Amino acid sequence: MMKVEKLKENNKSYSVTFVDVDLNKQEYVVSEDLVVNHRLIKGKVLDETAFRLFKADLQIDASLQKAKKLLSRYPKTIEETKTYLHDKTATTDDIDRIIKSLIALHYLDDFRFVKQYFERYFHADAIGPLKIAFDLKNRGVAEHIITGFINRITEKDIELNIEKLFYKKIAAFRQKPKTKAMLSMKQYLYQKGYSLDIAETYVMKHAHEFANIEQENQLLEKDFDKVSHRYEKINMTDYERKNKIIQSLMNKGYRYEAIKQCWEGRSNHDGQNN
Question: What's the CA gap between 51 and 26, in Å, rounded?
């Protein structure tokens, strides 16, 4: 039999002193949760079973409180929390008990976590379902929970998200050759978590949004000047310099025929001036 002789509040914790029938004292620092759960008040007597349960809860109390504090600030999945507790050297049995307590106290709920994840990353940030699914799997979320939320996404949701991403980038991509720009846009949408088929279909449907022939020729003229200037002072033959310029412009995404026409136009112009 153990009797609560003293219970003293100390900031956010409590000091509790027990005394046994032989007047031996044992003092512990416990959380408010432990005080409430075991209804500890001065004068209360705990029999052998009740005291054993108290000691078992005391063993995980510090780790449980740290996990609660962490999850209050940074929501995590069940699997991530297990990893956190394991890194804090908690035993497997203790981890199982702590996880059950956190679930019972509503600090852990993978369904709620995924719901909030989709609200933030899909609906607010327009991240695609492929990337979201990949990230959630890496965080240990069960496949059926992820699939359940992905199945709620409509074609309209996908289209609105891609439209948001597309018009966020199109101004920058108009400064590139059309073929290169369209490829870059497809890659961008894919990296954001949308399938290649969906990205391809949307970009082709909006091909008119990219630089037209006249705009692309203007871009080519500017890049031609930049690249030519880069190589003009390097010691090489005219043939080598021409190949370097053409290769650089092709790497930027310009068509060979367009580069050739630009080169010939420059050569004819220079010839007339001479």
Answer: 12
